[in-house]
Amino acid sequence: MSTISTLGQHLRLQARIQATRSELNRLTEEVASGTHADYFEGLGTQSGRGLAMRSAYQQAIFYQDAAAVVASRLEGQQQAIGQVKDIAQAVRDQMLSVQSGSADQNAVRVISDGAAGYLAQMRATLNQTYAGQYLFSGPATATAPVRAPDEANADGNSLQSVIAAIKSGYDLETTEGMQGFLDEVHAVFAGTHPNPAWNFDKLVYAGSITGTMSGIIDSGLEVSTDVRANDPAFKTVLEALSVAAAVPAREASAASYRQLAGVLASRLTEGVSRTLDLAATVGHRQSVVEDTKDRHDRMASLLGAGLSELESIDDYAASTRLSELQTQLETSYAVTARLGRLSLVSYL
């Protein structure tokens, strides 16, 4: 016997359709993402464990990224130190050949030009940046640390003008005059010159004198990234290059120029040794960062796999249920349409 749809039947059917559609939407989202749409409902009693794992995973990723940034900064510094060492070795070899008398005279005449080129190259090396920050300026990461030889500081002095002023006070044709010149320039780079405005940290170095630079790579673990252009290793090489560029062979006697070459060869040998020590210091920092980053990588991988297993849905079960709901919804729509077409007139 047929019955006529009542308003109550119609409303109950609409409510069932709405519930089916909600479940269908949720399952569609879960099948697409592979995870539970409602975290706590999906994981049930495992939700607390899941949240703890998720927090540990996010922390591992945070320190993983932080360690990667520190590693990149240290790698940039390490490469720059190696470039400075190579420059020091190249010019030292030239000076040793001049000192020994084995250098070709044509080559000797252009040593100052070559030294000026190496000086510009070293300045560019020490003024490198990583992620928009200068590597050798200390905390003053927005400031290029090494001024150009002809660049005046706040006092109006430049390295070029200071060396020229010093040079004018000595007779470079004599070994005594050359030694006096070399000693006074050395005082500038050592920071002991009687005129404090001429000392390296005011005259050449534009970075920060105070403060420190470091990076956090783990909870409670910081690694120093503090290498500055006023480090003795760099100053020693800069001094030798600056003198070599400022004194061409034609301005000195053969004897005094050999004296200059001997002093600069000694300075550059010291510079090579100091750059190797500095490279070892940075290398140790790199080792600490790399070991810590590897640990974060392993932890992130382990936690990621655990979270995937814990939070992922059963794809087969979800897809099967999705098909069932689609069929059920289609049936409900059909019934709703049929009920909507019924009227009392049809049964009179």
Descriptive keywords:
4 strands, f41 fragment of flagellin, N-terminal domain, 4% strand, two-stranded antiparallel sheet, disordered N terminus, mainly alpha
Q: Strands, helices and their partners?
A:
Elements: H1 7-33, H2 39-43, H3 47-100, H4 105-109, H5 111-126, E1 129-130, E2 133-134, H6 159-167, H7 175-190, H8 200-203, E3 214-218, E4 221-224, H9 232-246, H10 254-311, H11 315-341
Antiparallel strand pairs: 1-2, 3-4
Descriptive notes:
It is a single chain. The protein has eleven helices and four strands. The strands form two sheets. It has a two-stranded antiparallel ribbon. A two-stranded antiparallel sheet has the order 3-4. The protein is about 70% helix and about 5% strand. The relative contact order is 0.16. The model is unreliable at about 1-5 (pLDDT under 50). It has a single domain (about 55-300), classed as f41 fragment of flagellin, N-terminal domain (Up-down Bundle). By secondary structure, the protein is mostly helical.
